[in-house]
Every structure is written in C-alpha cells, then in structure tokens.
Amino acid sequence: MAAGGDHGSPDSYRSPLASRYASPEMCFVFSDRYKFRTWRQLWLWLAEAEQTLGLPITDEQIQEMKSNLENIDFKMAAEEEKRLRHDVMAHVHTFGHCCPKAAGIIHLGATSCYVGDNTDLIILRNALDLLLPKLARVISRLADFAKERASLPTLGFTHFQPAQLTTVGKRCCLWIQDLCMDLQNLKRVRDDLRFRGVKGTTGTQASFLQLFEGDDHKVEQLDKMVTEKAGFKRAFIITGQTYTRKVDIEVLSVLASLGASVHKSFGNREESE
Question: What's the predicted TM-score (pTM) here?
C-alpha cells in the first residue's frame, strides 16, 4: 500500500492531507472498513452479552454474525442509506442480509449512538495506541542525539538574537522535555478514555429495562459486559444520547500541544533560552 493508503478505498481514511502525512496504519483506523467492521463487532458483543443474560438469542445466530464481520457489501449499504436516509439502519439491513437468521436480533435494544459513539471512542483509543510508541521512539532517538552532541557548541538565541554559547545537546534536551510532557498527557488522555456503553437512546437505558422486564441488575451487567468486551476498564456512569464531547476537546487539546512541540523542535523556529 502506498504511503497514506488508497484513498478511493473503504480501507483508508479519505482526506487531502492523509496521503501526504498519515501512515497507512492510521489511515486504516479512520477508514470506512474499520468503522463499519467495528459496528458489526459491537452488535456481536451486544448479542453475546444479551444471550448470556438470558435473552432468546441462539448460538447459531451468534455464529452467523461472527462469520460475517468482514463481509461488508459497501454498495448495498450505500443503496440502503439512500433508501432509508439513515446510516446505522442501512448497515443493520446490510448485516442482516448476510446474516438472515440473526437479522432480528442485530442492534436489539440499542440506539444509533451505541455503535456510532462507541466506535468513535474505540477509534480514538486505537489511534492513540498507534501514536504513543511513535512519540516514545522520537524521544529515544533525540536522547541519543543529545548525548552524542552534549559538548558541541552552538549559539543560543534570545528574542531572536544571537546570545551566549550553549550546546546542541542542551538545546535538544529542551525539545525532549516538551515531548515528554506531551507523552505523559497523551497517555493520561488515552487511559482516561471511557466507553459510552449500553445506555439506550437518551442515556436512560429504558429499552434494555423493557427487554429484561425491569431487571436493573441485568441492565447494569449488560453495560459492564460489553464495556469489558470492548477492552475498556470503565464506561461513563451517565450519558445523554452521546458521550460527552468534552472527551473530544481533551483529545484535540493534547494533540494540539504535541503539534506545537513538534513545530518548535523541527520547524526551524528559534526558542528563547
């Protein structure tokens, strides 16, 4: 695959910037295939948990869903979305078409944001998991560079004017210090991510209370089980229709901070000593 991926394909995120700057791995995490495959995985996790908690879902239905996670007919999904004017229901129908025995239990009790928002959170987590080791590697290589040039003299600058002598190694350590702060903040945001969970249409879980005939313990267990299946330690205790968009602000904030550090370190800008 070429750098940034094939941008006419459902296997890659499509952006005029991605082909120049993004890795194939990152493009795939934000691709349509990854997104809709994750929707199907979420539907499978939901069905598995509902079956475990006593809803009439058969092993045959579960196996049918498992066997078709990757079998996504993007043309059919586009046609269904045009007909239904709803992206999630279009993919419910498309998944149900290749899983006829399971069609009636796909998305059972769930809302669009069950797949949409939880998938966004999974993508954010997995994208951060790609970024963190890359940043750690940059810091490690800069540390080697700083050690090798610890005594190499260079002019320092202040107010964009030549000042006293310093060393290349010392200046590099300024960049490393900023990047270490970014690494810490990225890891914090990644570890603090919570799953939206199985919260119903407006966060009330009313549909699941109805499915489980008012058994709120089973509804709580359903939320916990799906959260664990998705690889999250915690879900939000309370949500509305969506997870709080403060999450997006926090993620964007630390990414912007990293961008500022990278620009300062490698953008030919002089920093006051």
Answer: 0.90
